[in-house]
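User:
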Amino acid sequence: MSLADLQAAANTEGKVTWYTTFSSDDVDPMIKAFNKVYPKIKVSALRLSADQIPPKVITEQKGHQYTADVVSGDSPQIAQMIQAQVLQPYTPPDQSALPAGLTLPKGYEGVVYVLTASVGWNPTVVKQQGLPVPTSVETFTDPAWKGKFSIDPSAVNWYDSLVKMMGHDQALALVKKLGDNDPVFVESHTDALTKVASGEPAGGATIYGYKASDMAKDTPNQVAFANPDPLPSSLNLIDVVAHAPHPAAARVFEDWMVSQAGQTEVVDQTNHTSLRPDVKNDPSVWDENKWKPAWGDPMLSPDEYNAELSEFEQALHAPQ
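Assistant: Predicted structure:
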């Protein structure tokens, strides 16, 4: 099918249902940007956490309930759906190349953005309490930080980045030291940053760089952040769902999302990081000359994912 025929079919379908991990604040701006180009396609978005998307899609598919057309989410969760065969391959015509050393199954290579994990802290509280300013994750193993930093015990992509960067034994030893320093457990990277801004706790080991940068600009007395080098990095992917009720619209939506135009909107609207060399990112979040990316494996098998999650939680002394 030609591009013109695909777009005509998508306009006839007139709808696409999108399951996504984009934050609630970012979903509507992305839909509005898409509709400036494709006004005849109504986007219905369901915002879910990364770990909610695979079971929802898999359960729907098993029950022959075909609702979702396209999904975007963190690579470990997308991998689960690829392996469960609830997605279908599609390669957009203007898709960016993957970084050297990373591979994805053919037809499942659509990258929406890069997630980077920084260390964050509340400058006012850190100064008041005389805490050492974090320069790396290791800072939070300092006894002075005991019970005064947060960590997300579900951040498998972050832990896997540490494993790839440091080697398994060294990464596990670091996480055990963090766990022994009584971290405050948070439900997400966003939750971690919200708590840092409030000063309870004063710092966070698993802070998303894109959101920290925005908050640091708006509230510099409440949020500051630093990028470790190497920089833990992971992919957020987009794919068409098997048996999508609006297959043409799903493909057009994915085409736009990974294109230069779509990626420019991703960066401008959300401050996420694009892999495309023709899109300008926030230099305080992403500069490969300053911070070498430490990529987690985007295609962890379910057994590998579950093993790393269990090991991570146990090392942190997190409730399971």
